[in-house]
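Limitations

Structures in this collection are predictions, not experimental determinations, and the ligand pose is part of the prediction. Treat each record accordingly. The example that follows, with magnesium ion as the small molecule, is included so readers can see exactly what is and is not provided: the inputs are given verbatim, and the output is the predicted complex.
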Amino acid sequence: MLDLYSPGTSRLHRARAGWKLLALMAFGTAIFLTDTLWHVLAAGGVVVALFLLSGLTLRQAWAQVRPAIWILAILFVVQGIINSWALGAFVVARFAVLLTAAGLLTLTTRASDMIDAITFGLGFLRPVGVNPAKVGLTFSLALRFIPVLGQITQEVREAQKARGLERSLIAVALPVAIRTIKMADDVADAIDARGYRP
Amino acid sequence: MDTKSIVYIALFAALTAALALFPPIQLPGGVPITAQSLGVMLAGSLAGAKRGGLAMVLFLALVAAGLPLLAGGRGGIGVLFGPSGGFLFAWPISAFVIGYCVSKFAGDNLVKLIGWIIFGGIVVMYAIGIPWLAVAAEMPMTKALTVMLAYIPGDVIKAVLAALITRGVRRALPGF
Amino acid sequence: MIELRDVDLSFGDRAVLRGVSLRLSERRIGVIGANGSGKSSFMRLLNGLVLPNRGTVTVDGLDTGTHGKDVRRKVGFVFQNPDNQIVFPVVEEDLAFGMKNLDLPKDQIAARINEVLARYDMTDLREYPAHLLSGGQKQLLAISGVLVMEPDWLVLDEPTTLLDLRNTRRIARAIDGVNQHVIMATHDLDLIAGFDRVILFDQGKVALDGPPAEVVPAYERMMG
Ligand SMILES: Nc1ncnc2c1ncn2[C@@H]1O[C@H](COP(=O)(O)OP(=O)(O)OP(=O)(O)O)[C@@H](O)[C@H]1O
Ligand SMILES: [Mg+2]
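Predicted complex:
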């Protein structure tokens, strides 16, 4: 499965996904508790240093912020007008640092390890009725069927293109939805036929 | 949770991912609308409250795990923390509310179906996303609301489409 | 032996099978009939995927309704579309799935995976993403995923319908080589020409039952 992982052998790459996830949560909480710009910038410096230490590039760090750049720009302007430009800079910097830190986790951790960590974490919810084995099966099924549905969507788009309807959302989404539901029954039967007992 | 529910949850998460392949449509005014939130509405109206809501939880977990499943190939845990993260966290709740309301109140009436999908898919979604935006970006609620206003026409179009698709599926698969 | 005693099956008020009684013990059994004649419904009865509304289905004396788990262990099922049947993203994981459901030990699971991959020339594909396999490879994987569970019976519902000629022959050879009892529904009459017994369904009833030399020509006449 194609994920956003960037292969490497650094400490951060080798660290357990679950610990990295917890560290990111702690980092995110801390950064929202402070209201000093210098704290945020220092945290940003640490994150960027970690990028370089993990064998990643500044370009990759920037790529974490770039998709949000327009929203951040709007935030900056709105804040500047209604509050102060300093607050605008603070808010935008905080988001940028948080996005970069999250990107660090994403780039150094395989999706499969993250899924294992999430599944493991959900084990703590067993007392409220969460079954990690079922969660694991559900993840696997989704990973298996994302390419299948992607392919079905492409097939239907091509078929509708032949009729000049490829820009019509409903002409594509309706057949895809129908095939998805018909498929669901068959897949459930196939799982049961292979001896799965929920 | 029976096998069928597990499969529905996985398939509607996968369907939502597949809808990201649809190229964004440019509305007049320049706001792009993506097909992906149609997945949220369909998960609710077709898979039902519980299955649809859990399908969206699964989808977000896959995104957080680092799969580039959001429109434009975005993914990773960072998108959940961004200014618009509240809208993403709203997806499971939206799907649940749509599923619940559609099965309880909408029947076969297309107008009611559209209405309840708008309620769950727009009102509920914005009710979570906008305060998040306001708090995270330290701006007043009214400003946050104005920023989001441009997206409403696109979302209404998607709600109508979701209702038409839901009715289409029910016609194509009687007894579903 | 699989035995159906006076079986009726309906979905809602639509009767799909009526008064079907059969004793199945041959090694190669073909199932033919027009679209909608009830073949798939009949096959799904055999391992308890659906239960009869009247009558009983037993496998070696075990009722499919009360002994579903044991019956599914004895009767493996292969569907028409392998895409709906392969449930794990990677070849090896998918092969392991059914065996894990049987609670087999890890080393035995690994041994059987090696064996089946080697048998079908797929050893290189062990860690391959399932969605990148060709149609024929997918169906071979689906069949392998059932064979590693070592059932006594292999039930296949139109396993070659989506395949080209080369892959159809590949699947036919694979089916020919298995030790299991085979029950296969198909519209490809060549596939069942060498079978021991062919059952012809028509509108939910067994219309004819006998050797292929007798049943296939009758079916061809019936279809005009
Ligand atoms: N889940 C279901 N709900 C309602 N009707 C069904 C269902 N499954 C099958 N049927 C009906 O039962 C009848 C027999 O279907 P079945 O799939 O067994 O036929 P078949 O011989 O396998 O056909 P084909 O050659 O097209 O595969 C058909 O009329 C079909 O519409
Ligand atoms: Mg059939």
